[in-house]
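Contributing: when you submit paired examples, paste them exactly as shown. First protein:
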Amino acid sequence: MLRYIATRCNDKTTKAPIDGAKITLEKSGKPYIAHTDSEGLYHLNACLEKDSEFARIRVETEGYDKYNRNITLLSNNNTIEEIHITKIQAKPKKRFDLVGVSTVLGTVFGFISIVIAYQQLAPNKQDCDPSYPTLCLSQNISNLKCSDIKDRNFKVKQPDTHNFDRDKNGIGCEK
């Protein structure tokens, strides 16, 4: 027996009709599909073989959570209760994280400062400190430590301007 089914689909919060929602009624593995109109109404023609049959109804539309429910269809009733669907909650936008930005900027500027300082270690070969013949460290920089340069185990002559050769064995910044 062919049964005409009609009802309405609304927004759960505002009770406003949902236009264009896809309604799928699945009964005994067979889908019956309709779309809501501007008033949220939809109509389906489903074939019922008994006085009551179980079915599943699904509603899908953009901006709303999917609706999925088991229902009972009765041969003497051509309506099912209204469907109320829930609007998807917008995810909160990420706040601009000043701590993270300052950490990144600090790291970037710290790296740039190191590069600039390293470049200042030896701007040209004529300015190289003679205490370090295998390196070219500027004579115009004072208070350098081993942690300020990348080189290790390099030759040191006296006077050791930066005290890289603490044990006076002629090798600077030993590992």
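Second protein:
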Amino acid sequence: MTSAINRESLQVLYDYNVRVTDQLLDTLTQLTYNEYNEMRSPNYTSIRKLATHSFAVERFFLAQCREQPLAAINPATPDELRAAWQTLNQAIQDYLDSASDDDLTRPRTVTMQGRVFEFPAWQLLTQALVHSTHHRGELALMLGAIEHPLPTIDIIVHFFEQTGQEWPWK
């Protein structure tokens, strides 16, 4: 099987993911306890639970790629979540540094809802990224509604910064 996305492309996407996750975490640390924990979304109960869910899914898919068990972790505060996510980001970076394009195409067995599936590692990593992007959009809406808007988190802003160009909408 060939990969639709190679290691270098995944690296670009994960660099972006780290950047905007840091921006999200910067915003979360400004919240009061109640803003962070109160029900704001019927699906995930609170900003805390939605952010923690996004983090947990990234951890899950990395563990599947590494074919390692996953210990439970439940960060209670934005600072704890930041520390855990920094550890996760380093683990993702270590994985990408060591993975070849061939490694990324090798199927991994994943169990979800009691059923067993197989996906190549690049698809699992891409799922983690896209999933986080989806939930950052939800979090952006929730945070904006309580007067804590996120900065522009479009990937083009990341590309502007990488190429030394100034984002025109500052």
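If you have annotations for the second protein, write them as plain sentences, like these:
Residues 30 and 169 are 23 Å apart (CA to CA).
The chain has a mean pLDDT of 93.
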